[in-house]
Amino acid sequence: MILKYIIIAIYTIAILLIFMYAIAQLNLLFNYLASKKKVDTSPKFNLDNSSEIPYVTIQLPVYNELYVMERLLKNIAEIDYPKDKLEIQVLDDSTDESVASTAVLIDEIQKTGLDILHIRRENRIGFKAGALKEGLKIAKGEFIAIFDADFLPKPCWLKETVPYFKDEKIGVVQTRWGHINRNYSMLTKIQAFALDAHFTLEQTGRNSKGHFINFNGTAGIWRKECIIDAGNWEGDTLTEDLDLSYRAQLNKWEFKYLENVETPAELPIVISAARSQQFRWNKGGAENFQKMLKRVLFNKNISAKTKTHGLLHLLNSSMFTCIFLVAILSIPMLYIKNEYAHLKNYFYAMSFFVLSSAIFFICYWHMYKNIYGGGFINFFKYIGMFFTFFSIAMGFSLHNTIAVLEGHFGKKSEFVRTPKFNIKAFKDNWKNNKYVTNKISFNVVVEGLLILYFGFGMYSAFIVGNQGGDFGLFPFHLMLFVGFGYVFLKSVFSKV
Predict the structure, then answer these.
(1) What is the pTM of this model?
(2) Which of 92, 150, 196, 241 is catalytic?
């Protein structure tokens, strides 16, 4: 009997935490909708006046990016900004043949009159954070724009972002990510769906009310003074961008998020690349929760609401742990519910998960409508996309839970880069990409076993109790079966 109460308690706590997160998302939706009614009156530099044009350094942190370096450098060379006020740093930690080809490309660009440097380190201490910090030491710019190797800013990008730094309180200007290969496959569509929610609902919803937001590691620009004042880049977490963002905002720097400025980028097209990216983001989020918890909680200059949103923001990735617990315990709960009638009052907690799902459905519809437009046809497509997204997100819950637990318990690991492909269309071939791993981890085997587990959960709906079964959790178990099935099959068969 004690075990049953423990299962009920853990299940209920996990569901209530998910519900709290859903309520926070609903509040962000209200903030987002309210922000659309406001007129931006931010002071701006007049870049038509040469005396107001500040010096900018563009940093390109790269590591073994053989397939995208030419595309990246040619794109950056097209940036429309006065050459005498622009410096480009290629922070190249590569260890493969891309070093030589990158050097040739940089030499060609230098001949056009652009101030572009090829900066190499003897080691990768601090990984990306270490490279950015090293480049900052010699950066000429008052402002530091950062782009990962898979990003393709438009020529007007600096002219759309730099003007906002006229307000001396602004430490960062962050732009929205676009997706050049959004429709490549179901995997890219799901990733785009999740990122679109972050870059519309969450970033705007938080920023419009002065809550903590994060520089997203790329497609943004920092005031150099802000970086230094906040303590500079640190490589003790896997999400150095989130870390520095919070330190800067705790030091009273303000961030400016520009939803209307899109910076196109390439999404991972194979599941091994998506898994490595998800692992780094989710583990880094947990690491930053541990690092920033006390600093946020005990800061006297932050409102209670901003603290709440900040802590839930840092706990974003930890929601996967709650989802995984609810998923695993849902089958024992099905049997407990049907065998112990006197415990039925405890099962009202189950309704909170349905309510949370409904809240997410409403919030994400506004994001989807903003990108694709409204109407019955798009709403019908959205329903299919939402449940597909929800299923596959739950299919990643074991993988992401392991990342979160490692982050919370302080297990350190290397910064594993996400392989880039330079592929937009399905007909393009990625199978000879030298950076794609062929290794199937033990986690994938467990995901395969979980397919059987949730298949048993669906079967259980027909046999529990004495009233002809209980199908309340059947849709949930079906989604878990599909989600883990997708992740497992793609992990096993999407290989070279």
Answers:
(1) 0.94
(2) 241
